[in-house]
């Protein structure tokens, strides 16, 4: 059997200064090209799980392997292959960085800190901007954009990276309905055309993209369900009545 792209073995993560793990005894294996939704109530541990996979939070037990390597040891190298859209972001109004440069940051893994961006880098950035309808805003400071526009910029940055893995934490939270549909379609297309392994955290069940077949239900830091979409959504609805 092929090596999983993401593998967590008996993983727990405790925040500094806390006693109770925010996620506990997580066993999760994601294969190449899977599209998995992670759902669960507020405080379930969804963001903690994504940040643990991304190597941004040190896990306190078990082992996390991404692309066959331990994130505790190879975090920066692995992150150059992971596109991450965080749930929380806020750019100060006075942040001087332009939208185009934020998206260009997605290319730093490929560029390296000392090399100048190539034509290829600039092309990828322009493509990502256009895909998300941000071309007109490219030369504006990021802090002067609306929350929804900023969220699209972060998605553009993740796509410009041409990652092997996409981790999306509530990527529709600031978007209006029309934008949500467009962005969902874009994510689905990238998954389809590029076989991009995708994890998407959502709390709105209706927002689960239609071809996302596997759903993981987290609650109280533990995986309660992991399986076919219909079955897990049904269990979620029964448990939380929504
Ligand atoms: N920085 C932190 N320090 C200490 N505890 C934290 C921290 N961040 C989160 N927690 C705790 O960890 C648990 C899981 O939080 P997490 O943010 O992963 O939940 P979530 O499922 O993403 O929730 P939401 O749907 O509200 O985004 C919660 O009990 C929360 O209080
Ligand atoms: Mg969260």
What does this structure look like?
With 242 residues, the protein is an alpha/beta fold. The chain folds into two domains: 1-81 and 163-242, P-loop containing nucleotide triphosphate hydrolases (Rossmann fold), CATH 3.40.50.300; 90-161, no CATH class. The protein has eight helices and ten strands. The chain has helices at residues 46-53, 71-79, 99-105, 108-111, 119-131, 147-160, 177-194, 229-240, and strands spanning 6-13, 23-30, 35-39, 61-66, 69-70, 82-85, 165-169, 197-201, 214-219, 222-228. Strands 6-7-8-3-9-10 form a six-stranded mixed sheet, with helices on both faces. The N and C termini lie far apart (38 Å). The relative contact order is 0.18. It binds adenosine-5'-triphosphate and magnesium ion. Residues 46-47, 87, 169 line the site of magnesium ion. Magnesium ion binds at residues 46-47, 87, 169.
């Amino acid at each position: 059997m092929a090596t999983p792209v993401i593998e967590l073995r008996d993983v727990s993560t405790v925040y500094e200064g806390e006693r109770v793990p925010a996620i506990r005894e997580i066993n999760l294996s994601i294969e190449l090209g899977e599209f998995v939704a992670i759902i669960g109530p507020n405080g379930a541990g969804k963001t903690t799980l994504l940040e643990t996979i991304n190597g941004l939070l040190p896990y306190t037990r078990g082992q996390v392997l991404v692309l066959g390597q331990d994130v505790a040891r190879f975090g920066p190298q692995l992150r150059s292959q992971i596109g991450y859209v965080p749930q929380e972001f806020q750019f100060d109004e006075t942040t001087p960085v332009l939208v185009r440069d934020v998206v260009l940051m997605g290319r730093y893994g490929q560029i390296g800190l000392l090399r100048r961006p190539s034509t290829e880098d600039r092309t990828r950035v322009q493509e990502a901007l256009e895909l998300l309808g941000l071309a007109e805003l490219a030369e504006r400071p990021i802090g002067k954009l609306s929350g929804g526009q900023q969220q699209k910029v972060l998605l553009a940055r993740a796509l410009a990276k041409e990652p092997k893995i996409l981790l999306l934490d509530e990527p529709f939270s600031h978007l209006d309905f029309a934008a949500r549909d467009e962005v969902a379609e874009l994510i689905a297309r990238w998954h389809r055309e590029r076989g991009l392994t995708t994890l998407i955290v959502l709390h709105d069940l209706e927002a689960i993209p239609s071809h996302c077949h596997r759903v993981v239900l987290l609650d109280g830091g533990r995986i309660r369900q992991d399986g076919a979409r219909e079955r897990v959504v049904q269990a979620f609805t029964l448990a939380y009545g929504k």
